[in-house]
């Protein structure tokens, strides 16, 4: 019988909320444990091994000294998965990239600012090759299970490459634009079940862009509802500050 | 005794975020004992500048995955105060429910998944799930209940979407609230099983006492979570506006997080600090759980923080039942949040699982954020953890290296530190 795949979790700069979603799988997690061996998960266990097959990595890279640790993880694993928006697309940490780094440090640490190492926040793929991404702030637990199951079955996980609007329409939500809210649903990658619109808000773009975003259509929608691009652009930078479109 | 014992733990496990333990004992003398915070700095206070009033809570929620509800609500309260927005009684009660959900979730995660393995001599809950399946299932059920409760009131467990400036973007239905009420009652039964399990193993908690100052919110009408003034076991009350005079943040070389001190060289916040300040206002069930562990104010053993968390879970469950009754009795309506942004500056505070949290914001006429400051509970505890190191290591310096290591790990875990939260506090 083949031995169970060895799975490890790691984190860089982030809130650890995505690893918490894995813990939040509750009883399902106990079921999953029958099929994998978790060999490293610092947030939840003392045991640790550098011998693993699948690495889930949360958080953005925000200091040069992080790079060697990430490269070591890449070297140790055959499959590296970016867990959550910070790891997959840079996420909210990239907001600071729009300020001068000295200004950012001084805002928080004052005159001792230079003792605190930082550089422009970036996704994992800016440092090492990433095999798969599970975006979202936080990740969807279902998508995590889907990706892990696919890997266990030797299949390539495919996450949606159509906009949130598709899921939102299917769910029968009232369009956020109809409620007067600027929404990034038309260009953002689906997979969350339109989680924010469903709960009374609008899409913040946390899952990143679809591969070929129809920005013309987004412009048309904005024009139709009398919104200008600056509002949506500012909102777009919340999670997608690292993407070319935001620069 | 010619011997050198070195304890060097990089990235302590079973805590949120990154911290190191560094201890050297040579020839029976403690030469070095330090608690280091090595988390990457995050700079949230700078990131929200230039953002609109309805975005700040969304952004600062991302400070922490475990206490995102507390950050969201503290941020909303500060923004509302800055703009003169007064929320309804129903909104206040619903937010209190949501805070209870987070407190249960965070405390049971800490007690059940992170501390219990130490008490039962296992390396992790994953190992326990094989050896103590039934006990682990009790923990899982309480955790699941708190997560369902967060989903129902907040939209989801982490980074909730429903709470917005002025109220809620979406409400649970009365039927959903009634169903939740039933589950909370079942949760109290599960809690009894947890109390028994921990009580049977509580002798593994070290008997270490060090007098210190305990700081928490305090309110005349209730065991304070959502509202109150700043109170101290050394005596004194201060309005939340004066928070910087209480927290006095300062920087130390071994840490990317700031440390705090008030009356003494350090103070403690969190469940034990709340219990020490507000014991009398605990619910009846919570008091009986405290009695089972002989936990009374003022308890100066930091390891008892985990026990204070179990006491609070009882309070959270019981008070939630009362809040649901009140919301339904008062006549539930689906209110719409309406806010007109205006210029202003204000600070607000909430008791989150790890202790007292402060957010402060300033907005211009267009509702654009021009200033922000967040003072996080774990930051306020770092100094006290260091002082406990200095107090405890000399007492146990002759123990075997492994025993010292485990005890110091347990000490840090007892604080339930949330280190990734703590590394971006501002300087003003």
Could you list some keywords that capture this structure?
heterodimer, A: 247 residues, alpha/beta, Rossmann fold, five-stranded parallel beta sheet, 10 helices, 35% helix, 10% strand, globular, B: 428 residues, alpha+beta, Cytochrome-c3 Hydrogenase, chain B, four-stranded mixed beta sheet, three-stranded antiparallel beta sheet, 14 helices, 16% strand, disordered C terminus
Report on this model:
Chain A has 247 residues and is of the alpha/beta class. In chain A, 35% of the residues lie in helices and 10% in strands. Chain A has a 5-stranded parallel beta sheet with strand order 2-1-3-4-5. In chain A, strand 3 (54-58), helix 3 and strand 4 form a beta-alpha-beta unit. Chain A is globular. The relative contact order of chain A is 0.13. Chain B has a single domain (44-422), classed as Cytochrome-c3 Hydrogenase, chain B (Orthogonal Bundle). In chain B, the strands form 5 sheets. Chain B has a 4-stranded mixed beta sheet. With 428 residues, chain B is an alpha+beta fold. The chains are: A alpha/beta (247), B alpha+beta (428). Chains A and B meet through helix 1, helix 5, helix 8 and helix 10 of A and helix 1, helix 4, helix 5 and helix 6 of B.
Largest beta-sheet details of chain B = 4 strands, mixed
pLDDT averaged over residues of chain B: 92
- Kindly give the count of domains of chain A: 2
The chain pair with the largest interface is:
A-B, 57 and 60 residues
The appropriate CATH architecture of chain B is Orthogonal Bundle
Look up the CATH topology of chain B: Cytochrome-c3 Hydrogenase, chain B
Q: How would the global form of chain A be characterised?
A: globular
Q: State the name of the first-level CATH class of chain B.
A: Mainly Alpha
Query: CATH-wise, what's the superfamily of the largest domain in chain A?
Result: NADH:ubiquinone oxidoreductase-like, 20kDa subunit
User: What's the gyration radius of chain A in Å?
Assistant: 19 Å
Order of helices and strands of chain B: EEEHHHHHHEEHEEEHEEEHHHEEEHHH
Q: What is the share of helical residues of chain A?
A: 25-40%
What's the helix count of chain A? Answer: 10
Q: What is the mean predicted local confidence, pLDDT of chain A?
A: 89
* Count of helical regions of chain B: 14
What structural class do helix, strand and pairing data of chain A support? alpha/beta
Q: In total, how many beta strands of chain A?
A: 5
């Amino acid at each position: 019988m083949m031995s169970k795949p060895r799975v490890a979790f790691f984190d860089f700069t982030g809130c650890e909320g995505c690893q918490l979603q894995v813990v939040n799988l509750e009883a399902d997690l106990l079921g999953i444990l029958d099929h994998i061996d978790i060999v490293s998960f610092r947030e939840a266990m003392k045991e640790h091994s550098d011998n693993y097959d699948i690495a889930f990595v949360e958080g953005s890279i925000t200091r040069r000294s992080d790079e060697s640790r990430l490269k070591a993880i890449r070297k140790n694993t055959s499959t590296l998965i970016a867990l959550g928006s910070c790891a997959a697309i840079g996420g909210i940490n990239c907001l600071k990239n729009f300020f001068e780094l000295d200004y950012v440090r001084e805002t928080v640490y004052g005159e001792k600012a230079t003792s605190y190492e930082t550089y422009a926040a970036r996704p994992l793929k800016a440092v090492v090759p990433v095999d798969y991404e599970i975006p979202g702030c936080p990740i969807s637990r279902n998508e995590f299970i889907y990706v892990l199951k696919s890997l266990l079955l030797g299949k390539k996980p495919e996450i949606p490459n159509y906009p949130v609007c598709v899921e939102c329409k299917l769910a029968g939500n009232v369009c956020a634009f109809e409620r007067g809210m600027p929404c990034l649903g038309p260009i953002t990658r689906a997979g969350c079940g339109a989680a924010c619109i469903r709960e009374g808000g609008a899409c913040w773009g946390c899952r990143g862009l679809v591969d070929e975003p129809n920005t013309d259509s987004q412009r048309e929608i904005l024009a139709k509802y009398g919104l200008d691009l600056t509002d949506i652009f500012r909102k777009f930078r919340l999670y997608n500050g690292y993407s070319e479109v935001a620069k | 005794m010619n011997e050198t014992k070195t304890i060097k733990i990089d990235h302590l496990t079973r805590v949120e975020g990154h911290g190191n333990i560094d201890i050297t004992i040579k020839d029976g003398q403690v030469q070095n004992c330090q608690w280091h915070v090595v988390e990457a700095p995050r700079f949230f206070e700078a990131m929200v500048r230039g953002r609109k009033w309805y975005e700040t809570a969304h952004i600062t929620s991302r400070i922490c995955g475990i206490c995102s509800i507390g950050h969201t609500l503290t941020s909303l309260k500060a923004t509302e105060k800055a703009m003169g927005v007064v929320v309804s009684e129903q909104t206040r009660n619903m937010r209190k429910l949501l805070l209870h959900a987070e407190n249960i979730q965070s405390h049971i995660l800490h007690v059940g998944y992170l501390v219990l393995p130490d008490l039962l001599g296992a390396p992790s809950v994953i190992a326990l799930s094989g050896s103590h399946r039934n006990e682990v299932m009790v923990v899982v059920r309480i955790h699941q209940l708190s997560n369902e409760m967060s989903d129902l009131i907040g939209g989801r467990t982490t980074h909730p979407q429903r709470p917005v400036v002025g109220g809620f973007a979406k409400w649970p239905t009365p039927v959903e609230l009634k169903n939740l009420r039933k589950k909370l009652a079942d949760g109290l039964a599960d809690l009894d099983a947890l109390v028994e399990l921990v009580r049977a193993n509580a002798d593994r908690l070290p008997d270490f006492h060090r007098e210190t100052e305990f700081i928490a919110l305090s309110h005349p009408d209730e065991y304070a979570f959502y509202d109150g003034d700043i109170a101290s076991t050394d005596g004194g009350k201060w309005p939340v506006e004066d928070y910087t005079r209480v927290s006095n943040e300062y920087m130390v070389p071994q840490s990317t997080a700031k440390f705090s001190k008030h009356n003494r060289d350090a103070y403690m916040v969190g469940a034990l600090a709340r219990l020490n300040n507000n014991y009398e206002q605990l619910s009846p069930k919570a008091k009986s759980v405290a009695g089972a562990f002989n936990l009374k104010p003022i308890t100066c053993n930091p390891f008892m923080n985990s026990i204070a968390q179990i006491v609070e879970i009882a309070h959270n469950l019981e008070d939630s039942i009362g809040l649901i009754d009140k919301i339904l009795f008062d006549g539930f309506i689906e209110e719409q949040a309406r806010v007109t942004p205006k210029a202003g500056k204000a600070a607000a505070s909430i008791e989150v699982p790890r202790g007292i949290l402060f957010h402060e914001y300033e907005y211009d006429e267009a509702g654009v954020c021009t200033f922000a400051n967040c003072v996080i509970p774990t930051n306020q505890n770092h100094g006290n953890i260091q002082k406990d190191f200095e107090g405890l290591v000399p007492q146990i310096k002759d123990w075997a290296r492994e025993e010292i290591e485990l005890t110091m790990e347990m000490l840090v875990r007892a604080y339930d530190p949330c280190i990734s939260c703590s590394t971006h506090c501002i300087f003003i």
